[in-house]
Amino acid sequence: MTGFLLAGVQFEPVLGDPAANAEASGHWVREAARRGARLVVLPEASSAGYMFADRAEALRYAESVPGGPVYSAWAALAAELDLWIVAGITELAGERLYNSAVLIGPHGHLGTYRKAHLWNAEQEVYDRQQDGFPVFDTPLGRIGIGICYDAWFPETFRSAALRGADLLALPSNWVPVPGQPADAPTMANLMCMTGAHSNQFYVAGISRTGVERGQPFIGSSLIVGPSGWPLAGPAGGDGQELVLAEVDLIGSRAERHGNPFNQPLADRRPELYETGVPDVPR
């Protein structure tokens, strides 16, 4: 049996207080472990908050990976509790600053993903990565990572799927979208569901709540199965909570056929997609 319990932590990081965030996220990781979780996904920018005024302020709270204080607290938890953690972190790498997410296992660092698509004023704070979308092998299955606005690009999901991912973990800081009907799913939830369905893998879109420097965040964290339907969530828009779902990343590999004739990755026609497509004007 290869199934396990996957947990997403929807909480409210504090801007500019890494120690408080290490403590708060640690509380939720312990609670997830108490309930039996083997993999825990935290939101984007869980280490130090999100709404930095500028690059200089972000640099004050950035940390090295591995080795920084919040990272080290998460690594200690992963070792103590014998589980895996995906968490958003403000990363300093030499002179470069990244909006990143780390994957940590019981035996230490497994990988770092740096956000590819920078949202809004992030472009004045962070550097843009050139490394693509890595997929990391674990005993639980193959895990890809994206961050928040990356989900607005179907290439994020497809790149991970083509590299063999069984799950795309998506630490996020989702914000209200103009025109959102009160009785409809959030746009972010729909992106996660579509990405899961069209690539036939799991997606864990885990967001934060609260208001930071006037910017509200909408929570709505969820875990989606390979069919595209939520297995847990969406969570509420303003509360701190866990979303929990039984998943089987490795076992899902045998189920990735829509019918006897179709499999989305095998049915692709890449020779048709970009031929003659002009550069998009800005």
TrEMBL record:
GO biological process assignments: putrescine biosynthetic process from arginine
Keyword ATP-binding part of the UniProt annotation: no
Ranges for region Disordered: 255-282
Keywords, sorted A to Z: Hydrolase
PROSITE patterns for the chain: CN_HYDROLASE
CN hydrolase domain sequence ranges: 4-249
N-terminal signal peptide: none
InterPro entries in the cross-refs: Aliph_Amidase/BUP (IPR050345), C-N_Hydrolase (IPR003010), C-N_Hydrolase_sf (IPR036526)
GO MF, any single term: N-carbamoylputrescine amidase activity
Source organism, top-level taxon: Bacteria
UniProt cross-references to PANTHER family, sorted A to Z: BETA-UREIDOPROPIONASE, NITRILASE C965.09-RELATED
Name by which UniProt lists this protein: Hydratase
Organism: Peterkaempfera bronchialis
Lineage: Bacteria, Bacillati, Actinomycetota, Actinomycetes, Kitasatosporales
